Amino acid sequence: VTGIITSIAAMRREAEALRARGQRIALAPTMGALHEGHLSLFRVARRRADVLVASIFVNPTQFAENEDFGRYPRNLRRDAALAEQSGCDLLFCPSAAEMYPHMHETTVMTDNLSRILEGEHRPTHFRGVTTVVSILFNIVKPHVAIFGQKDFQQSVILRRMIRDLHFDIEMIVAPTIREADGLAMSSRNAYLDPQQRLAALSINRGLQSARGLYEAGERNPAVLENEVESVILATEGIEIDYVRASNPETLAPSKEGEPCVIVVAARVGATRLIDNILLGAEIEAS
Ligand code: AMP
């Protein structure tokens, strides 16, 4: 049975004991409402370590005032069963009160990467992410941490943070898992009604269409962006926040001929969805 740990002190003790026994610890941070995307991370991580810790923490500091923190899906009992079936050894589920004690004011932030793309629409989001992941690293003391390609900018930011702050942690990025109809799995998909769900499919359709152009030799980033945009714009009930062909390492605008990642954010009703596709590059594990 997967052990559930809620206190920071108990998690620290467990991490120290594992390390003292020479065990390699993997950490997979999540906000719960687990789906196959999370479970695939767990399976990949489990092979790279002796013990897999998944954290479940709906992190208040990465939500803005007007966002869905209050209604974000929470179901610990279901999550615990799924985590156990997917190879998790420990679930770390801390409280916000313990993670952010009274007068908490210290944050971790990538100065530039957190301001572009998603950061233009969610200016405080990535600071919340880098701060909570740093806190989790200090408590769980993992040797390896795993994140999903689905949140591409997040993975670039966390890789940079690990490097810049000299966290002694190997980073793995696992591929995006999709529903049978191509929609990238997300806990927020639960907000979509059937009609909105159809509209949301245009995101992956657009990305696949750009991939088709790329495979046929198209290398102009503007043309590739345009392809994604026109597929989404032709669909009712979905608004584009951005479609950008970016350099996969720096997230700067992609130059013609470089590998690129096309990152997309769009809104279907009140639900914000993101997705991406890598063209001419593979995700690198480390
Ligand atoms: P979240 O619970 O949404 O914060 O996600 C926790 C981790 O799971 C992050 O590293 C995400 O990038 C990853 N993740 C979320 N959805 C997917 C997916 N569809 N495929 C792969 N990884 C995912």
Biggest β-sheet, characterized? 6 strands, parallel
Ligand list: adenosine monophosphate
Q: What fraction of residues sit in β-strands?
A: 15-25%
Considering DSSP H and I runs of 4 or more, what fraction of the residues is helical? 25-40%
Rg = 19 Å
Spatial strand arrangement across the major sheet? 1-4-3-2-5-6
Shape: globular
Secondary structure class reads: alpha/beta
Report the total helices.
9
Quick one: how many beta strands? Answer: 9
Assembly status: single chain
Structural commentary:
This protein is an alpha/beta fold and 286 residues long. Helix content is 37%, strand content 19%. The protein contains 9 helices and 9 strands. The chain has helices at residues 8-20, 36-47, 76-85, 96-99, 118-121, 125-140, 152-164, 194-215, 221-233; strands at 3-5, 25-30, 51-56, 90-92, 144-148, 170-174, 239-246, 260-268, 271-279. The strands form 2 sheets. A 6-stranded parallel β-sheet has the order 1-4-3-2-5-6, with helices on both faces. Helix 7 (152-164) links the parallel strand 5 (144-148) and strand 6. Helix 6 crosses helix 7 (152-164) and helix 8 runs antiparallel to helix 9. The chain is globular and about 55 Å long. The two termini are 30 Å apart. The structure holds adenosine monophosphate (AMP). Adenosine monophosphate is lined by residues 30-31, 37-38, 40-41, 147-148, 150-151, 174, 176-177, 184-187.
